[in-house]
Amino acid sequence: MLLWINGPFGGGKTQTAYEIHRRLPGSVVCDPEHAGFGLRRMLPPELRGDFRDLTSWRQGVVEVLDLALTRHDGVVIAPMTVTDSGHFAETIGRLRELGHDVHHFALLAERETVLRRLRERGLERLLRSAIGKNTVPHRESWAVQQLDHCLERLAEPEFAEQLWTDHTTVPKTADRIAVLAGLELRPNREGPLRTRLRQARVGLRHIRFD
After folding, report:
1. Order of strands, edge to edge, in the sheet holding 102-108?
2. DSSP string, 163-198
3. N- to C-terminal Cα distance for the chain?
4. What count of Cα atoms within 13 Å lies in the side-chain half-sphere of residue 145?
């Protein structure tokens, strides 16, 4: 089974993916963004656009996820934003055509909620400042520019199932996904402080500087 967790940047995709992974034995996170940034870094700076527009990215994601789903016994979790209908068909649609059990979820929130979450990523900005990077990361600026488009597109019926996350926590969102996918997660026994520390570690591991 594949759980594809969609949503805007700042929508909680990665945190939710790792929360499910933490509480679902045998599961694995396969992040399509890794392949995208690898392809992007291969290009001269002036040619580095949205890697989702690269046919090689879409084909590569399908090939790798197909292999993981075929050879790995547990659930595969892919956190990745996809808003283009064609890209959706060439990745998620193609994996379904190959016979895989694919459950797609779009994590949505009100615009102000997502903006607040982006602003709260102060640690990332602090780290970038410490190494001489711009304190307003390019990706964060790009995410704000794309936010309205993402929220509008992902609310469309073709991107079901939509889950609104304004008034819930990451563990509760993970619980909702598990129920909808027919999975059973281990109980969440973490306290608030431990949860925040663990989520901070997840965030640190996924900081991008390009």
Report:
1. 28-29, 76-79, 2-6, 102-108, 162-164
2. EE-TTS-HHHHHHHHHHHHT--PPP----HHHHHHH
3. 32
4. 6
How many Å separate Cα 16 from the centre of its chain? 8
Residue 171 Rama label (left phi>0; alpha psi -120 to 50; beta): alpha
C-alpha pair distances (Å), 193 with each of 17, 20, 168 = 19, 19, 17
Q: For CA atoms 207, 73, 104, 24, give the dihedral sign.
A: negative
The SS3 assignment for 6 reads strand
pLDDT band at 70 (very low <50, low <70, confident <90, very high): very high
Does the pTM of the predicted model rise above 0.90? Answer: no
For residue 3, which phi and psi values (nearest 5 degrees)?
-105, 110
For 75-112, b/e burial (b = at least 16 CB within 10 A) is: bbbbbbbbbeeebbebbbbbbeeeebebbbbbbbbeee
Q: What is the pLDDT of residues 185-199, one digit of tens each?
A: 999 888 888 877 877
Q: Residue 152 in 3-state DSSP?
A: helix
Residue with more model confidence, 202 or 160: 160
